[in-house]
Automatic annotation (TrEMBL):
One of its GO terms (cellular component) is membrane. Its cofactor is [4Fe-4S] cluster. Pfam families: Fer4_7. The lineage of its organism: unclassified sequences, metagenomes, ecological metagenomes. Residues 50-79, 95-124 form the 4Fe-4S ferredoxin-type domain. One of its GO terms (molecular function) is NADH dehydrogenase activity. Coiled coil: none annotated. Belongs to the complex I 23 kDa subunit family. This is 4Fe-4S ferredoxin-type domain-containing protein. NCBIfam families: NuoI (TIGR01971). SUPFAM superfamilies: alpha-helical ferredoxin. GO terms for biological process: aerobic respiration.
Length: 164
């Protein structure tokens, strides 16, 4: 009887200790969407296509990302570059580049496979939409870093924080 009472009081105090400890810690809740969570730099969110230092598209239309995609959600059609007005530094560029974000599993294999660091998955996680058509990302969408986000891909292809 005494032992059971002692054990009960002990467990009660342990439980109260956990409550008290958490009362003093900073809450983890954030007021989304007014406050946005800063994702780790290596978080694999929405895809983007990088440009090089001269503003040319990095993508050379080699289709390695498409071949390595386990769910086949990247569609690339390449074309020859016009030497007088090149789109990329390579012989070819991606005339069509599309990613179906509804099929994507965000594994990052496309990013790993790309030999020129053209396609990247960045911190943007606000992907909800009412229209399925909006999940087919075309090249012009992928070359622009969308707002709102605290990060952007700079001209060197690195992630940097946008100064507010
Ligand atoms: S993240 Fe994975 S599933 Fe998505 S496009 Fe890249 S390779 Fe395909
Ligand atoms: S994104 Fe990279 S891997 Fe994909 S087609 Fe362009 S250059 Fe090739």
């Amino acid at each position: 009887m005494f032992q059971a009472t002692f054990a009960g009081v002990k467990n009660l105090l342990i439980g109260m200790g956990v409550t008290f400890r958490n009362m003093l810690t900073k809450p983890v809740t954030i007021q989304y969407p007014e406050v946005k969570r800063v994702m780790p730099a290596r978080y694999r969110g929405r895809h983007f296509l990088n440009r090089d230092e001269e503003g040319l598209e990095r993508c050379v239309g080699c289709s390695l990302c498409s071949i390595n995609c386990p769910v086949g959600c990247i569609h690339v059609v390449s074309a020859e570059n016009d030497p007088d007005n090149p789109v990329s530094k390579g012989e070819r560029y991606a005339e069509v580049y599309e990613i179906n974000l509804l099929r994507c599993i965000y594994c990052g294999y496309c990013e790993e496979a790309c030999p020129v660091d053209a396609v990247v998955l960045r911190e943007h996680y606000e992907l909800a939409d009412y229209d399925r058509e909006n999940y087919i990302m075309e090249k012009q969408d992928l070359l622009v870093y969308p707002e709102p986000n605290e990060f952007r891909v700079n001209i060197l292809g690195n992630t940097e924080r946008v100064n507010k």
